[in-house]
Amino acid sequence: MTTNYFKNYPNPEGFFEAYGGSFIPPNLQKEMETITDAYYSISKSHHFISELRSIRKHYQGRPTPVYFCNRLSAKYGGRIYLKREDLNHTGAHKLNHCMGEALLAKYLGKKKLIAETGAGQHGVALATAAAYFGLECEIHMGEVDMHKEHPNVVRMQILGAKVVPVSHGLKTLKEAVDSAFGAYMQDSDNSIYCIGSVVGPHPFPMMVRDFQRIVGIEAKEQFFDMTGELPDNVVACVGGGSNAMGLFSAFLEDQECKLFGVEPAGRSFDLGEHAATMTLGKPGMIHGFKCYLLQDENGEPAPVYSVASGLDYPGVGPEHSMLKDWKRVSYESATDEETIDAFYELSRLEGIIPALESAHAVAYALKLAKKNPRESILINLSGRGDKDIDFVMEQYGLPK
């Protein structure tokens, strides 16, 4: 790690060493440079920061608490804690960056927010932000995910968003990103593309990380107040990686804290049956930036799968890619079966129904607790599972 980490990464061109950057058409690059300039000037101003802090406190309900899982710890070992982002307004961490992006759009005079969504949490959060600021909202979502996450589709529509079904390819998150980018390029003067994770061309990996840093800042202080020390292990799920980057950011320079990013091992490690980008991917390019990428035999983004719609993306954030090379974060995985088991364990032992995305982190943390029964584990519970209960019951039923 280096001093002044957040000033040095990314560099002015948007690179986290070999990863990141902006590889997009010239007309779109011009718009990205406008957004970058606005971010560096507007978002650092007293008025912007003051308004965002007020929104977080009085509208989002921040700070979210850190909670000790007494019964889960007693069963599995270790001392297991949750950063309760499921208690953030809209039920996930996504509103942290959506309110920031929408506030930036307001200062830029934009009239419309465009985005993709997988599990629907980013879409719900952006639709919420659009309603708050009086902006139009258009959310692109794969038809497969629309079926899996139907409650979130209804929530977006109630909030006033236009939900655009995406019916090409695998009809999931990658295709939704393709579709949203296309819509944005047709009307970039009046709209802003609000990317839902620490991915995409510069400045979005930096912007989303910075807006999500509040998670780690709160959690570090809360954990220390509760225990008098820092956590031995910090665990978060990784798809694009926004919730993980938000939590990890506070602990990067604390070498005594081991950081674990948990991605989907799915049904198997056969191509198309998982989304374990860090485990099986290699450097490549997707959606205008460089990162670790799952690729087919032609070097194109590979088909991916996860029981959690928010994690089924073949790429990953460029900052995560750098942290993997640095070996600062250990990237692990959890299978569908392990994830569903963790979903029910947390529900029945602690009365907290997690999002399937977050349940990946819980699944790995339970293995970690068994292995290191004297160590503490802080998990980012990035979202609640209301959106997943119909799908889980339909596909898996109640545990026997």
Brief overview, please?
The protein is an alpha/beta fold and 400 residues long.
Explain what the structure shows.
The chain has 400 residues and is of the alpha/beta class. It has two domains: 146 residues, Rossmann fold; 215 residues, Rossmann fold. It has 16 helices and 14 strands. The chain is globular, with a radius of gyration of 19 Å. The model has no long low-confidence stretch (mean pLDDT 95).
Q: Please count the helical segments.
A: 16
Strand order of the largest sheet: 3-4-14-9-10-13
What CATH architecture of the largest domain do you see? 3-Layer(aba) Sandwich
Order of helices and strands: HEEHHEHEHEHEHHEHEHEHEHEEHEHHEH
Number of domains: 2
Tell me the major beta sheet: 6 strands, mixed
Please report the total strand number as a whole number. Answer: 14
Proportion of β residues? 15-25%
Q: Radius of gyration, rounded?
A: 19 Å
Mean pLDDT: 95
Question: Which structural class is indicated by helix and strand composition?
Answer: alpha/beta
